[in-house]
Amino acid sequence: MSISATFTFFFVLLSSLAISAFTDNLPTTYDVISEYNFPIGILPKGVTGYELDKTTGRFLAYLNGSCSFSLEGSYQLKYKSTISGYISENRLTDLTGVSVKILFFWLNIVEVVRNGDELEFSVGVASASFGIDNFYECPQCGCGFDCNNVERATTLRSDPGPFLSSF
């Protein structure tokens, strides 16, 4: 093997190791939302990647396909394969890709605001607040928190009621 071929081989090898080390140290999507003071459970398990423009707060989060599940038998949630919006401390705005079924209608969740120990979810004309302790764990696509037919010990607490307050 020639010296230049050997040098090229080692350069390519070292470059790939450096790129691998760099990408392995990137924060996960769950790390990033925690940096903005949100619990990881606002996203389901299995987020495959994200993009974030730290100057504007514009983000994209990617799932491997769409995702849906029920929580406590009362709420049905749907996540598209791409979720987008703007993130800042305690606030997610202009959300797309997340919806909740209320009665017979699917409504887009357009904003999430953290206010102390509560998260307020808005569908535009109405909102509902839930205790942050409901979001310490990530739900799983297809089964939510009841993936082994074992009910979650806590119940989803809401205040004042599911999507009853309006603007």
TrEMBL record:
Tell me where the signal peptide lies.
1-23
Recorded hits in InterPro entries, A to Z, give: At5g01610-like, DUF538
SUPFAM superfamilies associated with the record = At5g01610-like (SSF141562)
Offer one Pfam family short name for this entry. Answer: DUF538
Which domain of life does the UniProt lineage start with? Eukaryota
Checking Gene3D superfamilies in the record gives: At5g01610-like
Would the keyword Transit peptide be found if you checked this record's keyword annotation?
no
Q: Give the keywords, sorted.
A: Signal
Q: What is this protein called?
A: DUF538 domain-containing protein
